[in-house]
Specification:
Largest sheet: 8 strands, antiparallel
Order of helices and strands: HEEEEHHEEHEEH
Structural class: alpha+beta
Oligomer: single chain
CATH class: Alpha Beta
Radius of gyration: 16 Å
CATH superfamily: CheC-like
């Protein structure tokens, strides 16, 4: 799961966004998760539920959460454009990514030993669905127009998979919105843990703060 965060002394997510505003963004994330769950369930012909245990802000100089120590991850990245710009990233440990890809491909559990071309394509589609659902909910909440580029998949340790986010990845250069995302799958029953990251350009984050008018 998440490694303990190395937040600089005296700095926390609440210095960037109040608890009430985080609660508002958590509600938006829950709406997006519900839409994504419906789309994935329809696509896979199995019941998939998605919960959002936590929404947080990773402050500048802090580390992107790791799925598990020493485990390679898969990252599905998309550029975000429109009224604000930046990137989105969907993170999963590779074993969880394989299980999700099997569901997307309607395969039996354990039949995908590695991330081949079809598995990568399935995860790109899953990331596209999840990011699209989250950003649709966010765009309605913020009254902003947001669009996504086609997805690109990267694998490796956290730093390698997130290398496009900046020279210091996985230590972030500017604040990012981190949505912990839990998938609950049925037939067979299992749960998969991942993260959705909204990585706005610095000026874009200022626009989000202004738009979230909750005190």
């Amino acid at each position: 799961m998440i490694n303990p965060r190395n937040t600089p002394a005296g700095e926390s997510s609440t210095t960037l966004l109040s608890i009430a505003r985080l609660d508002a963004l958590r509600e938006v994330a829950n709406i997006g998760a519900g839409h994504a769950a419906t789309a994935l369930s329809t696509l896979t012909a199995t019941r998939i539920m998605i919960s959002v245990p936590m929404v947080n802000i990773v402050p500048p100089g802090d580390f992107v959460p790791e799925i598990a120590p020493g485990v390679e991850i898969v990252a599905v990245q998309m550029a975000m454009s429109g009224d604000i710009s930046g990137q989105t990233v969907f993170l999963l440990a590779i074993p969880a990514g394989l299980r999700l890809a099997e569901r997307m491909l309607r395969r039996k559990r354990g039949t995908s030993p590695n991330l081949g071309r079809l598995e990568q394509s399935a995860l790109n589609e899953a990331g596209n669905i999840l990011a699209g659902a989250y950003l649709t909910a966010l765009s309605e909440f913020l009254d902003m127009r947001l669009m996504l580029s086609p997805p690109h998949l990267h694998t490796g340790d956290t730093g390698e998979a997130l290398s496009t986010l900046g020279d210091h990845a996985p230590r972030v250069d500017s604040p990012i919105l981190c949505v912990e995302t839990e998938f609950f799958l049925e037939e067979p029953t299992e749960s998969l843990h991942g993260f959705f990251l909204l990585v706005p350009d610095p000026k874009a984050f200022d626009a989000i703060f202004r738009a979230v008018r909750v005190e």
